Amino acid sequence: MRADIVPTGRPVISATGLFTPEESISNEELVASFNLYSERYNAENAAAIAAGELDAMQPSSVEFIEKASGIKARHVMTKASVLDPAIMAPRIEERGDEELSILAEIGVAAARDALRRAGREPSDVDAVLCAASNMQRPYPAMAIEIQQALGIEGFAFDMNVACSSATFGIQTAADYIRAGNARSVLVISPEITSGHLNWRDRDSHFIFGDVATAVLVEDAALAPESHWDILGTRLKTVFSNNIRNNFGFLNRAHPETAETPDKLFVQEGRKVFKEVVPMVAQMIVEEAERLSIDPRKLRRLWLHQANAGMNRLIAQRVLGHEADEDESPTVLDTYGNTSSAGSIIAFHQHSEDLQPGEAGLICSFGAGYSAGTVFVRKAG
Ligand code: COA
């Protein structure tokens, strides 16, 4: 990067990047596998079920999944093992310490996509934040491995704010730019959510999908001609047990056994829906007011992709009318809930048509509870 560029302290989004796993599971395939598993479970436990000691498992349904969530399919790193009723979990071969780990690999792929779109070399980047729901290991940080794999100098660290990790990462990166501590920061969200989803749980087995995204946040002085001004960022957290995962180094019980479902993702979906919608809608409207933006005039909302109904309600409260696909695009149907990456995929895939001067909102929400807003305006 040219040394003579004088930083402005104004953060922008220069580009985004996406890695999508090749394999995808349709609702039909998923439900067929789940129902085979539940039939086997009921047959194996027939005596206990007949004696009233165990509840029989109920079948899942394609219609329910699509109606309740809007999800039609999800990408995964390993399809065969997830659909195998005897496994129902990802099977990713463990790699040696000298090999690039899988989470870093997909993060690097997304980062290279973002760098290419911005016309940047890795040597132009000052910092890497790996912001995701689940890290592959506690240390060394995934972000440092990604930094090394890309050949970036400077510093890197991991941060986890569940589904809001990417927007928290964008604000952190923006703050580095504002403070002059960095001029170019990669925020990378590799989400192998299939590893923490309980594929045997009827209430949630359809929710998640795997993906990786990257966001290049830079000082306006070095941004490519076409970029997004960051008008303002806001973060919020309120403690809740309604989305929880107890897996950790103090309680390592094997996550795939039926005895330890709390070591995987669990949620009270109804409560999450009811509590998070008003919290997020209010946060967006208040932040828009603070930034002197009329929320009803926002050209597009790139919302967190957890549930189509939640997004419909939030968009309605923000825009003052029912949003169409153009105003609030959905990627949930083909990607499922990709945790922190969801709103970034929506932005990545549905932002090129906006005209200079048009403003929109990237917004995430999820476990914690946590929520983040990033108001942006197309420049160039
Ligand atoms: N197949 C068929 N029926 C199912 C089912 C399945 N896979 N899972 C649950 N059902 C049934 C339930 O047994 C229940 O039946 P009942 O009414 O006879 O008791 C009925 O469907 C409704 O279940 P419920 O869990 O209340 O569904 P819901 O409409 O709340 O939808 C979610 C469930 C999870 C899709 C929805 O609550 C949601 O998306 N919430 C927000 C989640 C979220 O954003 N989480 C953040 C994750 S990071």
UniProtKB/TrEMBL annotation:
<feature type="domain" description="Beta-ketoacyl-[acyl-carrier-protein] synthase III C-terminal">
    <location>
        <begin position="291"/>
        <end position="377"/>
    </location>
</feature>
<dbReference type="InterPro" id="IPR016039">
    <property type="entry name" value="Thiolase-like"/>
</dbReference>
<feature type="domain" description="Beta-ketoacyl-[acyl-carrier-protein] synthase III N-terminal">
    <location>
        <begin position="157"/>
        <end position="237"/>
    </location>
</feature>
<dbReference type="InterPro" id="IPR013747">
    <property type="entry name" value="ACP_syn_III_C"/>
</dbReference>
<keyword id="KW-0808">Transferase</keyword>
<dbReference type="Pfam" id="PF08541">
    <property type="entry name" value="ACP_syn_III_C"/>
</dbReference>
<dbReference type="InterPro" id="IPR013751">
    <property type="entry name" value="ACP_syn_III_N"/>
</dbReference>
<protein>
    <submittedName>
        <fullName>Beta-ketoacyl-ACP synthase III</fullName>
    </submittedName>
</protein>
<dbReference type="Pfam" id="PF08545">
    <property type="entry name" value="ACP_syn_III"/>
</dbReference>
<keyword id="KW-0012">Acyltransferase</keyword>
